[in-house]
Design a protein that fits this description.
The complex is a heterodimer.
Chain A lengths: L1 H32 L6 H40 L6 H39 L2 H7 L4 H39 L4 H11 L2 H27 L4 H31 L1
Helix pairs in contact in A: 1-5, 2-3, 2-5, 3-5, 3-6, 3-7, 3-8, 5-7, 7-8
Chain B lengths: L1 E10 L2 E11 L4 E6 L5 H9 L6 E6 L2 E2 L5 H8 L2 E4 L11 H12 L4 H14 L15 H13 L5 E5 L7 H18 L2 E5 L12 E6 L2 E6 L1 H5 L4 H8 L11
Parallel strand pairs in B: 3-8, 3-9, 6-7, 7-8
Antiparallel strand pairs in B: 1-2, 1-4, 4-5, 9-10
Helix pairs in contact in B: 3-4, 3-5, 4-5, 5-6
The chains are: A mainly alpha, B alpha/beta.
């Protein structure tokens, strides 16, 4: 029993240490966001990297999420005789919840994993050491642009996800299930307010920080060799996905 | 110029450096040799400030770098050029971009001046006309040459070479050795070369130091090292399996 408690304590202390290390990494990155010189060229490159890697998957998942939502919500709303509310139901579900969460999960799988692998490869091939040896801070060149890119690109991709999802829902609801085209959009206009959109975008930006932070951290402190990079990539995707869902609950409680 | 005093370093309880003492004079080209995993690269990582010593001191131009913060270390790093074992070229940049990178980031030179400096650096390492290629398109030897050009582009006072010829064939290795010698003569830097390419590397060295069991067991001119009676040095030079250096555990 004593050994078990000791092991549990050691594990907990080690976990606390790792979490503290990760948090300090984020604090350090946030500090350098505000310290010139700013690397706008690298920021633009990373925004393109995140956007181009994830666009197709966002379009696909967004459209099918909207279509599935239309099917399921139509079935539920019909029981209450409220099929006319299909448009706002889809829009609110997407804008407030599903859009930010699903697009964050998709970007994590597509671009986040690539980001961890890229930084991990830079670590094991000593490119990060080379930056340090040139007296150039790797945080400024590798981490800060990715975190800022996350804050900008995640809400943009989420907006595309929401829009495509709404049109996916329109396609199924109006063309296949017979909801009126005018009803679909006019009811949406009545029920969806600017605050809903703002909440969705705030959530999305915060997911952008989480994903780029975790993925950069895991790449930056990757283990040795190809196996180390592979392990870091898996850990980055799993940790980011879990943290997105946990953070979604907390930020949802705050912003509700 | 560089004074390493009683440097100790352990990783996960395993002693790697066990009291390294070494003085390197200005403009000297010194070879540090020793068996793989013996701590040679760890020494130069301490000089770069990438690793923190458990104890001991490293003086560069009379400044103890083990006591410096990041800003202080960066000032020292401005004097350094490093050729990493694998080259450490940035994959996303062309050869030109790689060599120009330190100039773009650390100097206020105009585009034209940078272009001219890079052209000259590529010529120095015998790689005219490859500026638009990416590192992935280059052979191992070419990568090392580009990395050397990048290390020298800011005309550093000290250049560290971490196994510059590992993985290269003997002819290319020889050409890299000569290139190190030629650039050393041209730029007059203090050079520290980590290598186990003996005896070929002796041709370019002013002095050789041997690391064994985490300490420098012998230093001397190449001739003195060749004629050394130290059993570890003798075993290393002859490549004998018998002797104090254990290669198999």
């Amino acid at each position: 029993m004593k050994t078990f408690v000791r092991r549990l304590g050691t594990w907990f202390l080690s976990l606390l240490g790792r979490m503290g290390h990760m948090f300090l990494f984020l604090i350090n990155a946030v500090y350098f966001i505000f310290i010139p010189p700013f690397k706008f060229d690298i920021l633009l490159r990373q925004m393109r990297f995140l956007g181009s890697k994830s666009m197709v998957v966002i379009l696909l998942t967004g459209s099918f999420t909207g279509m599935v939502l239309a099917l399921q919500l139509f079935y539920t709303l019909r029981k209450f005789g409220s099929e006319a509310l299909l448009g706002p139901a889809i829009a609110l579900s997407l804008i407030r919840e599903l859009g930010p969460v699903l697009s964050a999960l998709m970007i994590t799988g597509r671009a986040g994993s690539a980001l961890t692998a890229e930084i991990g490869m830079m670590r094991i091939s000593e490119q990060i050491d080379a930056l340090t040896a040139m007296a150039l801070n790797p945080m400024r060149y590798l981490i800060v642009p990715n975190i800022v890119a996350g804050i900008i690109v995640f809400p943009l991709l989420t907006s595309i996800f929401d829009l495509i999802g709404i049109y996916g829902g329109y396609f199924v609801g109006v063309n296949l299930l017979g909801v009126g085209s005018g009803t679909y959009f006019s009811q949406m206009q009545n029920f969806v307010v600017m605050e809903d959109i703002r909440i969705g975008l705030y959530k999305s930006a915060s997911f952008g920080v989480i994903v780029s932070w975790i993925c950069c951290y895991k790449g930056f402190y990757t283990g040795y060799g190809a196996e180390g990079v592979s392990k870091s990539t898996t850990e980055a995707v799993v940790a980011s996905s879990i943290l997105i869902l946990i953070w979604d609950y907390f930020i949802g409680s705050i912003l509700l | 110029m560089i004074d390493i005093i009683d440097l100790h370093k352990s990783f996960d309880g395993q002693k790697v450096l066990n009291g390294i003492n070494l003085t390197i004079a200005e403009k000297e080209l010194i070879i540090i040799m020793g068996k793989s995993g013996g701590g040679k690269s760890v020494i130069i990582k301490h000089i770069m400030g990438l690793l923190k010593a458990d104890s001991g001191n490293i003086f560069i131009d009379k400044i103890d770098i083990t006591k410096l913060d990041v800003k202080g270390l960066d000032k020292i790093r401005d004097k350094l050029g490093v050729l990493f074992q694998g080259g450490a070229l940035f994959d996303s940049l062309t050869v030109f971009g790689n060599i120009a990178f330190p100039l773009r980031e650390k100097t206020k030179l105009s585009k034209q001046e940078i272009k001219e400096r890079v052209r000259q650096a590529l010529e120095d390492v015998g790689l005219k006309g490859v500026g638009s290629k990416y590192p992935a398109e280059l052979s191992g030897g070419m990568k090392k040459r580009v990395a050397l050009a990048r290390a020298l582009i800011t005309e550093p006072h000290i250049v560290l070479f971490d196994e510059p010829t590992t993985g290269l064939d003997p002819i290319i290795s020889n050409s890299i050795h000569r290139l190190i010698r030629a650039t050393h003569q041209k730029y007059g830097y203090t050079g520290i070369v980590i290598s186990h390419e003996v005896p070929e590397i002796f041709e370019i060295a002013d002095r050789v130091a041997m690391v064994f069991d985490g300490v420098i067991v012998e230093t001397g001119t190449p001739e003195e090292i060749k004629n050394s009676s130290n059993p570890a040095v003798r075993q290393f030079i002859t490549g004998s399996l018998e002797g104090p250096i254990e290669f198999l555990s």
